[in-house]
Structures are given as structure tokens and as C-alpha cells.
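pinned: reference chain
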Amino acid sequence: MDGYVNREQVGVKTSVNASLLSKWLNILFWLIIVSMIAFGGRQIIDIVAAAAYGMILLKIASESTHYRSSAICCFIIAVISIIRIPISDRADAVLGVLMSVLPVVVYMIGNYYEFLGHAEVLSDIDQEFSEKWNRLWKWFTGILFVVIAGIVLTELILVIGQVISLASVLGILIVSVVKIVYIFKMAEVFRNYPLQQR
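pinned: its C-alpha cells
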């Protein structure tokens, strides 16, 4: 089948659609770039970006069920963001922490499944690249736990929480940049793979 890459692993799809993955991973790459440029803008931008991210993951969910799980998390984040709009200004400390931590936790779970999906579709094509996604997840997890700690402590001990939060921002930026680069390279891998087999 043109555009498909054969896979032989037991319990894994027997093929992945390289052209489909190349197309939507490339769109995903540009969505992330636009979202980062718009970061700090209106909350509606974040909501639309989360929903769009989920829709793109659904487009490639046929190649890995992990993408569908990640897409669901994107939609949950969008819904939470909508709920936060009317209550953010008048929320008490406990509710404020909950509404701040919950999206981060869901975001972490969503990225876990997304990274698993990327690693899975690459596993028979580029094992080294596949392992890079697994390693990136470990870094991502560690940093997000620091972020959560910073959010909680900011509500309880302002100065310490802010210091931890600021320290974790650099880590998040580094991992985010690496993720963007990896997605761009993945799109290239799937775009070029059928050509390499001719």
C-alpha cells in the first residue's frame, strides 16, 4: 500500500500511514509554533489551541490508540479552561490551587500518551528516535512535578513557590523546544521514508 510502512511487532498495528502522519505532524508543528507566539494572550487562544491540538491527534489516532487518549486530555483541558473563566477572579485559595493544578495534571497525562504514540509509530522505523521520545517523557515528568509543587507553594508560601516556579520555567521551555524539534523531524522521517524504500 502506497504511503504505508510495514510493521511486524506482535500486538501493534501491522502498518502505519506515513503520508498521513507526515501531513498532520507537520500541521501539529505549526500549531505549536503559533500557540507559543500567542502565549500570554487571551485565554480564548489557549482554549482554541488545546481543542485544535486534540482534533489533530484524533486525525492520526488510527496509527496509535495513544493519540486518542492524548486528544481526550486536550479536550478536557479546553473544558477546564472554559470553566475557569468566570470563577478565576473570585476563587478561594483551595479552589484556586485545584483549578491551577488540575489542568497541569491532565496536560501531563495527555503528553504521556502523546509521547507514547510518537514512540510507537517510530518503533519499527527509527528505534533510536523512538527511544528519544521515551527519554524526553522522563524529563518532562520530573519538571512538571516541580511545576505543580511551585503552584501549590505559591498559594501557601509565596516567595518559595515563586522561586520554584521560575526555576521550572526554564526546564519547561527546554523540553518544549525539544518536543517541537522532534515533531518537525518526525514529519520529515515519515515524508521521506517511502522515498527511501524505492
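why pinned: The two ends are 13 Å apart (CA to CA). Strands lie at 4-6, 15-17.
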